């Protein structure tokens, strides 16, 4: 029996129409991931060009925000037609913002997630923390059904001091607060692996850079985009990576490779 290889990438594009103008479709054709998750698409499918909605060689699925247009939104591009596509968690206060999309395949179920940002005010921080807790219950539910779980996306939190340029200055800022970082600890306690750290223990690997301060040019950033996999999938993982040379967004793509 031939092996099945999966190159899975996640990218917060900070506007799918904006990144289209910066060569997204050429990048998709060249990189050719088997599964691609996008976050912060900021668009409804009917607002997009046909080549974005129906790129050659891909099945595409969108979960856009219903509460307000031009906000949030996630998408899935898959070469293989999934057995099932999952949109949202079944909780309207979260699903209305278009933050979760997933797909089930023979070997695993995988999600792309745009986790909330808690910087605006205490209400949004509480919303973020509630989303965190509900999402962990949500994916654990699939695990209990015997599914092998992968989830990826913009988590909007750096886990450890190694994961951002200036940890001491940001300990009271949403995105590096102890209560947010503790949730990532819980994710790991529940049996999920931070895939990048299985292959890269070195510092200064960041996935988000502030445009205003030209953080990318100076490599002053945060690692807030992740792939987590269930421990049982570790034996199938052959690589975890960031695509530091890919431009077009304030985030860079992250990915994993699996073989079955």
Brief sketch in words of this structure:
The protein is 25% helix and 27% strand.
Helical residue percent?
10-25%
CATH superfamily annotation: Endonuclease/exonuclease/phosphatase
Low-confidence stretches: none
The order of strands across the largest sheet is: 3-4-2-1-14-13
Element-level helix/strand string: EHHEHEEEHEEHEHEHEHEEEE
CATH architecture: 4-Layer Sandwich
Would you write up a description of this structure?
25% of the residues lie in helices and 27% in strands. The strands form three sheets. The chain has a six-stranded mixed beta sheet. It has a six-stranded mixed beta sheet with strand order 5-6-7-8-12-9. A two-stranded antiparallel sheet has the order 10-11. Helix 5 packs parallel to helix 6 (178-189). The longest helix has 23 residues, at 122-144. By secondary structure, it is of the alpha+beta class. It has a single domain (5-259), classed as Endonuclease/exonuclease/phosphatase (Deoxyribonuclease I, Chain A). Strand 7 (109-114), helix 5 and strand 8 form a beta-alpha-beta unit. The chain starts with a strand and ends with a strand. The radius of gyration is 17 Å and the shape is globular.
Fill in the keyword field for this structure:
single chain; 260 residues; alpha+beta; Deoxyribonuclease I, Chain A; six-stranded mixed beta sheet; 14 strands; 27% strand; globular
Secondary-structure blueprint:
Blueprint: E1 5-12, H1 16-20, H2 24-31, E2 35-39, H3 50-53, E3 59-63, E4 74-78, E5 84-87, H4 92-95, E6 100-104, E7 109-114, H5 122-144, E8 149-154, H6 178-189, E9 192-194, H7 196-199, E10 208-209, H8 215-218, E11 221-222, E12 225-230, E13 237-242, E14 254-259
Parallel strand pairs: 1-2, 7-8
Antiparallel strand pairs: 1-14, 2-4, 3-4, 5-6, 6-7, 8-12, 9-12, 10-11, 13-14
Helix pairs in contact: 5-6
